[in-house]
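Section 3.1 - Work completed
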Amino acid sequence: MCELQLRHITGDARARTFRERDCANQNGGGHKRKKLSEPEDGQQPAQAPENVELALREFWALSSIQSQHPNVIHLEECVLQRDGTVQRMLHGSSSALYLPLVETSLKGEIAFDPRSTYCLWFVMDFCDGGDMNEYILTRRPSRRTNTSFMLQLSSALAFLHKNQIIHRDLKPDNILVCKSRDGIDEPTLKVADFGLSKVCSSSGLNPEEPASVNKSFLSTACGTDFYMAPEVWEGHYTAKADIFALGVILWAMLERITITDTHTKKRLLGGYVQRGTQVVPVGQALLENPKMELLLPIKKKSMNRRMKQLLHQMLSVNPQERPDAFQLELRLIQIAFRDYTWET
């Protein structure tokens, strides 16, 4: 289990872990990318409506989950702060603090006094092992770690899709690591950062029937380029886009394929297609050339035949050819426990 860090936002010194969603943070890229900052970094006013929306999306997604999963970050509590006023955040609240944020998100323009400082404090699991990039790229390749991480991530995704949540920004940066207490077991992964996620509503024909995330089409092209499915670039996609993103992550992890962040120069796990000197995201390359065959594995003994076949299906240009999250979880369990060797 992950430990809770002791911090307090007011005079009440309760056991909490605070990661602040600074509503003023902005992404300089073509797609919205959220940034979490520690409380010590300072608090800035929420001047960008899109960042208010990112914060609320994360709150709405995590608060919609009625149960917990060991591999999904758990929201214990959300606290809304405006200047010196602090209030517990409740979905559907009609409080004078909460409603202006909802109005800002819906209208796309600031609906509160811009001179005020708004901050959302998320009380959640404390993850002490950094993110998946840091963990994988600072250690020697390990079949045991790879297997553990694949099973954990597929289980997390099946849980999210069962709860009608499409993440839309799966990438190693958004997968946090909790170190094992004994140093023997593999660490626990936590899928986090739900600012771009979408909670699918109930079926239009039957309000009591949960929506199928694989039949709920979305049109907002969002995510991070190197993990985006071809159909996301076009703006017409379902939860199968999450399957594609996870396929890129697993492929990169198994073969230690890295890309370089142009801003930070940091090495990141991520698959790509090489065109001369140009590095092109897999989804973009498949959109431009749907008949292109991905040459994987790149390294001869990085995966067995079943894993190769599964990755090809996860990275298929046609979403219908990808397994859903529940099929994926089952197949990875079969690969992990029924294949005695990864060299065949």
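Second construct:
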Amino acid sequence: MELRWSSDGAVVELRWSSDGAVMELRWSSGGAVMELWWSSDGAVVELRWSCDGAQVELSEMVDCFNEITMNSDCRVVMLSGAGKLFTAGIDLTDMASDLLSPKGDDAARISWNIRRKVVKYQEAFSVIERCPKPVVVAIHGACIGAGVDLISACDIRMCTQDAWFQVKEVDIGLAADVGTLQRLPKVIGSRSLVNELALTARKMFADEAKSSGLVSRVFADKEAMMAGALEMAGQIAARSPVAVQGTKINLIYSRDHSVTDGLDYMATWNMSMLQTQDVMKSAQAAMEKKSPKSIVFSKF
């Protein structure tokens, strides 16, 4: 896929709804389709892809989230699948050509090239976690292999009743290497359960995913789930972007550090962020019993 940008940073192919309320940014890669939708105020960005019979290039994910990170209009991101399922898992043909037939004149060079490939794949999911805007992911149908890597990097996960999850890598002779083994133990409270899923490649269905903490909500169907996800995204977007992004950044920092280190980082963070006008605006709205949606916050 070639991303071609116009002089003002917009992608060449743009589509507008009849009322101008929604902008669609669409591109394809080898039959796979990715779409970006903005709400009318630009606060909610929805990323959809279709992986039915095709794959999305991982570099596209990096480009997409780097752009979202720099977009001060965007306050929250919603991820969903546009096809019959969320993700179909690794393409064995691509894996054979990409990782199992690496270039290099000797073991050192072959190993180094394999490592570079793996790190590239890891970045496609780490960029989601690193994005300061909260990422809500809506999962329907199968979520296999790299799909678990992806949702583990998101902030809020919800799914349909027919959704199921599978850490599939051991079935194809490798250890999951782009994020599941590192993030899933911190998402699910039971390390025994994580070990079971990763070592047996068994399927986990929606009810178990909710009871274990992998997802926070389960919906009857995709339509209900999308409505619920968009409503939640709207609630997040209505809050101060200074508060929301600071909360995400500090939650992730505290997850990976001691309580003492987390508190110290938080104190350093807020010594500047508490000087925002958003605090007074939010406090005044609360005293006047107004909705956060009534507050106009500056871009951030």
